[in-house]
Amino acid sequence: MTKPPAASGSASAEPGAGAPAPRRRRVDPTARGVWPFALPAVLVTAVLVLVPIAYTIWLSVSDRQPDGTNSGFLGFANYAEMFGNPQFWNSLKVTLFLFVVCLLVETVLGLALGYVMSLDVPGRRVFQGMMLIPAITASVAVGLVWLLIMDPSLGTANQILAKVGIDPVVWLGDPDIAPWSIALVDIWQWTPFMALIISAGIRSLPEEPFEAAALDGASGWRTAWNVGLPLLRPVLTVAMLLRTVDLVRFFDTIYIMTQGGPVNSTNTLNVYGYNAGFVDNQPSYAATLQIALLVLVIVIAGGFTWFRQRASR
Which domain holds residue 174? Predict the structure, then answer.
């Protein structure tokens, strides 16, 4: 038994039958109610970041005294004093020296160690955990331990050198050796961190380009240089960017081990600013140094970000 067709024009026919149904407008679920959720984060960011930066800028253009009084607006007098101070240029040179040396060595060693950590061998996870011990250790503790290791008379470093017939080294007392000693400590502490990021990047690389290179008869080194490194460039850039921000702000380990000495040979911008504010009691000049440090971080980090965006295209 079949249902008879409805008569044309009958009252039972639905009005507008045969006409296309109106399309409902799609509403983006994120278009409504965004600000009530984002506003707390924006306010917290403004309070914790923007307000201190604005206050530091105000200090840098005023004459703040250690007792809390402020004699008023000075303009760019503190900046003129900073640019005319040879100690500022020395601290900038030390900052850039440690930044370049540590970043290059940590990247190269991290790349080699990251490749080893990416191999599927027994005990790989245990090895990774042990390698990360320096990176998760507080920098103050690392500085104290290495201060004992580099002690000129009782330190382990000179005892090892004596075993192989090398004269003792004044690791932290020689202005020519102290910056390299600080760099050695930072490389020891943070190379495993770089290796962990790079090993994760290596394990996430696609296999097809390497298989195609093997079919073309490319050697292992040529494949790594022409295929692996270009694919790994975004990961390397991120890892270097993370270390860049920390290296430019280098403070804790240096202050524990040398406090900027000897003869200002390890006096970075951050250490110089701390000494100016809390040792020499010059808060406005110290704020000026911190603004200079902020600009340096923004310039270097911005350069890495631009390079990362260019590499990802």
Answer: 93-267
